[in-house]
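Customer escalation, tier 2.

The customer says the design service returned an amino acid string that "doesn't look like it belongs to this structure." They asked us to rerun it and document both sides in this ticket. The original structure tokens are below, unchanged.
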């Protein structure tokens, strides 16, 4: 009997340690609080409008990046996750994003970098407030010659009616996400 009681106490303590509620303290579900994980598909017109807004946000970000890190950082949400081939970084606040972008620009400027363009954008809406934007980022010198092509996938989230970049993933050019 003591053996079973000890096991019950151990299981109860272990469950409490990893977050299982004690049966006597378990919360009862609150009535009239719906949990919504998925929504009905938006209309084709809404999809087109959201895709246009997403493309405009990323294009505006690319334009801002060519001008200043501070301006480009305004297109990011907080926190932002950066997934590079050999590193994952969390940029917790706007200052971290601005610092990352400033370091990137500092490395590109001596090479003649002037501006970037989006080529072959692919947008996939995951739900009403989350989207994937996969593209080829082309960097140019001031004379218009191409410097570099990079595959990039962005995870964007709609925040207060504006789309913000929440994640950047370095992507092989042949692995870009397909559009809807």
């Amino acid at each position: 009997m003591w053996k079973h009681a000890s096991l019950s106490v151990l299981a109860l303590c272990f469950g409490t340690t990893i977050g299982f509620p004690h049966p006597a303290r378990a919360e009862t579900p609150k009535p009239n609080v719906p949990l919504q994980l998925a929504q009905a598909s938006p209309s084709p017109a809404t999809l087109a409008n959201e895709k246009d807004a997403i493309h405009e946000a990323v294009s505006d970000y690319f334009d801002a990046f060519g001008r200043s890190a501070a301006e480009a950082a305004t297109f990011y949400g907080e926190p932002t996750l950066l997934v590079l081939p050999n590193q994952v970084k969390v940029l917790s606040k706007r200052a971290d994003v601005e610092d990352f972008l400033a370091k990137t620009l500092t490395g590109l400027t001596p090479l003649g970098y002037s501006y970037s363009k989006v080529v072959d954008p692919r947008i996939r809406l995951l739900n009403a407030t989350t989207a994937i934007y996969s593209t080829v980022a082309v960097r140019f010198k001031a004379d218009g010659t191409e410097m570099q092509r990079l595959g990039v996938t962005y995870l964007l989230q709609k925040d207060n009616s504006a789309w913000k970049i929440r994640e950047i993933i370095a992507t092989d050019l042949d692995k870009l996400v397909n559009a809807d």
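Tier 2 assessment: The sequence is consistent with the input. The beta strands are 76-84, 87-91, 113-127, 130-141, 146-159, 162-170. DSSP finds four helices and six strands in the chain. Sent an explanation to the customer and offered a walkthrough call.
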